[in-house]
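Contributing new complexes? Match this layout with adenosine-5'-triphosphate.
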Amino acid sequence: MNAITSSPALARARTRWLKGVAADGGRARGSTSLLLLDTGAAIGFATGLAGAVEAVPSIGAMLPWAALMALSGGARGTFAMLATRVGAAGAEHAKLRLRRRIVATSLHRAPGSTATTGTLMNAAVDEVDAIDGYVARFLPARQAGAVAPFLVLAATALASPVAAGILFATLVPFILVMALAGGAAADVSRQQFLALSRLSGRFADRIRALPVVLAFGAEDREAAALGRAADDLARRTMRVLRVAFVSSGALEFFAALSVALVAVYCGFNLLHLLPFPVPEQLDLGRALFVLALAPEFYAPMRRLAAAYHDKQSAETAAERLAALEGERQSPVATVPLPRAAPGIVFDAVTIRYPGEDTAAVSHFSLDIAPGETVALLGPSGSGKSSLLHLLLRLAPLSEGAVRVGGIALAETGGVATIAAWVGQSPLIIAGSIRENLLLACPKASPQDLTRVIHAAGLGPMLARRPLGLDSPIDARGGGLSGGERRRIALARALLKSAPLLLLDEPTAHLDAQAEARLIATICRARAGCTTLIATHSERLAAIANRVIRLGETA
Ligand SMILES: Nc1ncnc2c1ncn2[C@@H]1O[C@H](COP(=O)(O)OP(=O)(O)OP(=O)(O)O)[C@@H](O)[C@H]1O
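Output block (do not edit by hand):
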């Protein structure tokens, strides 16, 4: 998902994606209308100023014009403030919806996706944030920028067509210079954004793996690598700033030039000192009106230039986020699985992880009857876990077919709804032991909890802890032995009372006595279930109706 290219097709897809996200915000138009009203108020202010000056010295005649000026000035402040607020609210809304989509994508990544936790965190937090300025500032500024200068030009032309012509003439070279500066800015901004994403992702991943980094004394190496990534980001940020200064310098030059030319023209016209003939003679009121409006001609473009960096960041983020969304599993027409012990058929199944040359499992066939217990035995790396993961759609089905309860696996969307799974590295969530157990069945009664605690042999461990079931544990299962983590995972699986049991090395890390007790528990729990056990233990395999040995045939 890191490949950033700028082919026209990709650029179009990126723009479509961004438009969809911005439409989710839905308030860019409101902000644009307020910016246009701001321009209208600026014209009102200039009209009031010109009228007031023309009415001098009659105070009575000046008053309505002064009132128009005050009203327009106040309206400008209000419109500008409201435009900012409405834009920010639209951006918040769009980001919230996008974050929901990214979290859903993270949960439903295609089997074998290479996105790391750091990448996903960075996507959901920083990269989604990069959309903020695009929706809140850039889109309203661009839409208003396409109309507002022409409103100013039209109002100016009513008072002085020549002054309007001068303003328009400075616009053409200005647009050329801005297009060139924009191209350069796009490139450096993209590089800077990538460097930022790399740094954030790496930082989050290393923090998550801090105990491993410390255990291997790699903190200095990791700190140095993070330092290099930070230096790279700093260099690229300076490049972005350089380009930004150059383009804002060009903008200011043309804005100042246009105002200066209009001022010189109005002054010389008023004094009849123009060295060439012009088709108009200005009076003081019209000249002041034109002069007051001249800075407003470039104001929308100034606003657009200030928000241009937001567009670059959003486009780079869009490429990455759209690619990430592309990793989401294609939705399947999910056929609900019956809540009864299912038969499972693996028909010439091959599992090949993305980017791997060799298959983890090759042409594997097995027919498991409803209610049967099958043990998968075999050396490390022979594909036992992969077969269990395949049923949960955590591993890809590259060739062959799998049917569960007579329904093709692809149509069921995986067996998670009817399966209780004990993974090889039991996943623990930060919270209490009770919360970890209730994850499987939030409505479980205290009696159910006691039953599974007893069945999984968790009693003595809980008795040793003053807070018992409410003892806190962190996301790494800190403070628990490997065997205790496994028992919690087994108790959680038993609480689900599902008709399909998928057990991945449930007795690893247990001494012989504890293993015997757990095997007895599994024997009780599997009643009425179809059970698939991946194990290295011959004792555990012995309880199965059938033992399948993987990786042993020539
Ligand atoms: N996400 C993955 N991406 C790439 N290769 C993978 C992935 N998961 C597993 N593999 C590879 O697939 C092969 C089978 O792995 P698997 O975990 O299924 O074996 P196993 O029999 O369960 O091993 P063990 O007994 O050590 O748990 C191994 O070569 C492993 O390196």
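Reviewers usually confirm one structural detail per submission. For this one: The pocket of adenosine-5'-triphosphate is lined by residues 112, 353, 356, 360, 378, 380-386, 424, 534 (CB under 6 Å).
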